[in-house]
Design a protein that fits this description.
It is built from 13 helices and 13 strands. By secondary structure, the protein is α/β, with parallel strands linked by helices. Strand 12 and strand 13 form a beta hairpin. It starts with a strand and ends with a strand.
């Protein structure tokens, strides 16, 4: 199990985490800031210059999942992770990767009053070796060039203050619904840790409701289904466990016909039972891209979804957070590039009444 302590930079995550490992038996502290620091030493400067935050590097998000899983495999018990996550898509990717490894996450967010938060950030003591401001997470607290330690501290303060508004936006949006809140405005680190431990023990900080199949150990076969409304838009769904929108569908189980797998996934994901077997639009071979294994991706035409049926769509909260009908142009901003290219050719196949064979998103044959 993981207890993930979220919150604004300066909210007291690190000091709370250090106290928490003394309250939860058989627990280990893992600070992803260390992973960010290691990546800063491994990647070329040119690559690092392309981002302003280690979290924007896909390698950081993968390594956080892999490191957490490895620590749990080595130590067992509970892993306490103090880390700010303000972008929902990064939370999806990291927590989804942990869910794929069958690792349960209890998500807690510290919510001190903003005046108190700003006071902590502005205090010089907060940067006198206190990791609770998390400056090194992005390199913001590390002197660069001819910069002095005091200048680095001032830059780190600016970083933390600049991220208060994104924190408030996340808290007012997805974060408050996803994490158990602990107001530590008037609490010491030890008292905050006790509040977190009590919430976990009592089940108030419940396991995050993310459901995901285990990570594949080889190439997979997946079936997606395009469902259209009366304006010829198609349905996309927003998974909780990975970034980006997706077509309804999923991995074909052993011994299962692909079209039937698509029908099963549609029923499981949105509560819609298709009356007829959908027509195949394309087959796309997805090349392996570590850590992914690739495989065959099939898209089917599920036909028209009447408005009355659309009004009855159901979303399992553990897998999907939203659905919407979109145009091809709108899908370009929602789908990852590999899925968008697949979609474009599927729509062309539907227009022509044919089936296309793709390799890595490019028609062949």
């Amino acid at each position: 199990m993981i207890v993930w302590i979220n919150g604004a930079f300066g909210a007291g995550k690190s000091s709370t985490a250090r106290e928490l490992v003394d309250l939860i038996p058989n627990s280990t502290l893992y600070d992803p800031e260390l992973t960010g620091g290691a990546i800063g030493r491994m990647l070329p400067r040119k690559r690092l210059a392309e981002v302003t935050d280690f979290q924007d590097l896909p390698i950081w998000r993968r390594m956080v999942v892999d490191t957490a899983a490895a620590l749990l495999a080595e130590m067992g018990g509970v892993l306490v992770v103090p880390m700010t996550l303000l972008r929902q898509e990064y939370r999806d990717e990291i927590f989804g990767g942990l869910a794929a490894r069958r690792i349960e996450v209890r998500h807690v967010v510290l919510t001190p009053d903003e005046t108190i938060l700003r006071g902590r950030i502005d205090s010089r003591a907060a940067f006198a070796g206190d990791p609770d401001t998390d400056p090194a997470q992005t390199g913001a607290g590390t002197p660069v060039g001819g910069e002095t330690a005091a200048e680095a501290a001032a830059r780190a303060r600016r970083w933390c203050l600049d991220h208060i508004d994104p924190y408030r936006a996340a808290l007012d949006g997805w974060l408050s619904a996803d994490a158990y809140a602990v107001d530590n405005s008037a609490l010491t680190a030890a008292e905050t840790a006790r509040a977190v431990a009590d919430a976990v023990t009592a089940g108030h900080a419940a396991p995050c409701g993310i459901v995901q199949t285990p990570e594949p150990t080889g190439e997979t076969l997946a079936a997606g289904v395009l469902l259209f409304d009366e304006q010829d838009r198609f349905l996309l769904v927003d998974p909780t466990y990975k970034p980006g929108w997706e077509f309804p569908g999923g991995v074909v189980e052993r011994g299962e016909p692909p079209a039937r797998a698509g029908m099963r996934e549609v029923a499981e994901e949105i509560g819609l039972h298709l009356d007829t077997v959908p027509r195949l639009l394309l087959v796309d071979w997805e090349r392996p891209q570590p850590p992914g294994y690739g495989g065959l991706r099939l898209l089917f035409d599920g036909g028209l979804l009447p408005a009355a049926d659309a009004d009855r769509l159901l979303l399992p909260g553990a897998e999907l957070r939203a659905w919407r009908f979109v145009t091809e142009a709108e899908a370009a901003d929602l789908l990852p590039p590999v899925r968008y290219h697949r979609l474009r050719w599927a729509l062309r196949a539907r227009e022509r009444g044919t089936v296309l064979n793709l390799e890595a998103g490019v028609p062949v044959g």
